[in-house]
Design a protein that fits this description.
InterPro entries: GSKIP (IPR037395), GSKIP_dom (IPR007967), GSKIP_dom_sf (IPR023231)
Structural class: alpha+beta
Strand content: 15-25%
Largest sheet: 4 strands, antiparallel
GO molecular function: kinase regulator activity; protein kinase A binding
Number of strands: 4
Strand order of the largest sheet: 1-2-3-4
GO biological process, one term: regulation of canonical Wnt signaling pathway
Family: Belongs to the GSKIP family.
Organism: Parnassius mnemosyne (clouded apollo)
Shape: globular
């Protein structure tokens, strides 16, 4: 499979869209300023609520951890994830809790709307 090539303006837009989806469930989520991106990949820096820092490579083939301050690195780095949600779900129980709480709250709101 050939890696999808995006221009240098498109990768940051794609990265920001992915980061915006998870930002409220982690301590920090930014494009990694210390890592050089290319037209085939961009790097994200994510700090979880457990205070673990992960550098995540985002490419057309998915997301994978390339470095980490955590002992969990081996748990996540051996595979690519189709989504950033799946990667975070695997490495951060606080992400999982936060995401689940938000989902539960939204479902409760929807239930109230349907009943009212």
């Amino acid at each position: 499979m050939t890696e999808q090539v995006l221009d240098k303006e498109t990768w940051p837009l794609e990265a920001e869209a992915a980061l915006n989806d998870v930002r409220k469930h982690v301590r920090e989520a930014i494009v990694a300023p210390e890592m050089k991106s290319t037209n085939q990949k961009i790097y994200l820096k994510i700090t979880t609520y457990e205070d673990e820092v992960y550098i995540v490579e985002m490419s057309a083939s998915g997301f994978n951890v390339v470095s980490s301050s955590s002992a969990n690195r081996n748990k996540a780095s051996d595979r690519k994830y189709e989504t950033l949600y799946a990667l975070l779900d695997n490495i951060s129980h606080r992400y999982r809790e936060s995401f689940g709480e938000e989902l539960s709250s939204k479902l409760s709101d929807l239930e109230r709307q349907c009943q009212g």
